[in-house]
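Field: sequence (string)
Field: structure_tokens (string)

Example rows 1 and 2, in order.
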Amino acid sequence: MLTGKWKGEILWQLAQGKERFGALRRLIPGVSQHMLTAQLRELEADGLVKRTVYPEVPPRVEYEITEAARALRPVFEELFKWSEQYGRNRPGAPPASGVSAQVR
């Protein structure tokens, strides 16, 4: 359900509020259009993201997290705290991802 390089970052960004596809791409550096589309579809199928299409021209689509995903927020916050303490302090640790930069 949460496997995939970008799902954590997508959920974190959507926890801040509803976003359109283009805004999500800008908020998550490095994610391709194809990968973002695929990960959003999987999160929607898993019941963690809600996709709303508005009957406008041009069409407007917004993404938001569901209550099930909201319940994961404390888990993500604890993972972030753990990574701050242990993840980046070890020699050879990879640079911080976009999530950490956004959270600070």
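Row 2 begins here:
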Amino acid sequence: MASILFFAVIGSLALGWLGFALGKAIFRPVAKKKAVRFRVKQEKKKDWDPDSVFQLLKLDLKEVFLSETAEQELNAKLRRLGLAKSARDVRKEQIVLSGVSLLVGLFSYWAFAPVLGLLGLAIAAAGWIYPVETINREIRQMNEIVYKKFPSFYRRNYYSYKKNINTSLSRVVESHMRVCHPAFQRELKVFLEDIESVGEFEAIQRWKNRLPLPYIIRYAEIIESRLRGEDNTPVMENFKLELDKMREVQVDKDLLKLESRINGVLGLMYVPFFLLLIIYFLAQMQGSGLVQFFKQLQ
């Protein structure tokens, strides 16, 4: 009798705790969370572009030996990533990977089985796509990091110019490079090298061309007008407020992801807990004779 009473108390506490957790999740304010989830869902829809998927499958045979424009774009991406190889090296990798896979596929088609040959042809296509797509994926990751870290960089610009109107842009970049994320540091390093080699105006233009993102373009326009001697402090302050809001949105997204992970871990913890309750319940039924009682009723 004492065992059954103990089990009833434990079960009641467990069900009460579970009901409290579910009630808290259902009835607490969720307007902000819903807004963040909706924003994340809309951004995912924008990121998925059917044309980009088909572009991955298209082999541009006109540029097997690289046009001048394609070579410049690829070299700019490699420079952003801090890689020592050039666009021609990447194209050589594409030709070698796809060529070897194609030869192996043709040999397998005639010597072994047609299925192996078709597999080799698929690998050849992947070998052509993989080197460039790897670089593009790293660029997308870097753009995401720049998106997250840019507001703090701009705040340093804003307060430096507010304190001293004649502040050097290169000095601001150097000071922020000491404390920023390594990926963003590489981006600023390229920006700083351009400032030292071609000057501030041209460096800003190049950065804007490398990262044609709305906030980078806006930043370039503000700094250009500042370099021309214009007093655009109100414009800089308005842009700072916009970036602060952007940063708040990003923090909300990060918190939402963190909460989802925590809920997933807690969900996994519930499983063994309820299994132990079931085992304990069955053991108590067996020990208290309830099983024989139910059998007699049948």
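free_text_note (row 2): Residues 67-141 form one domain.
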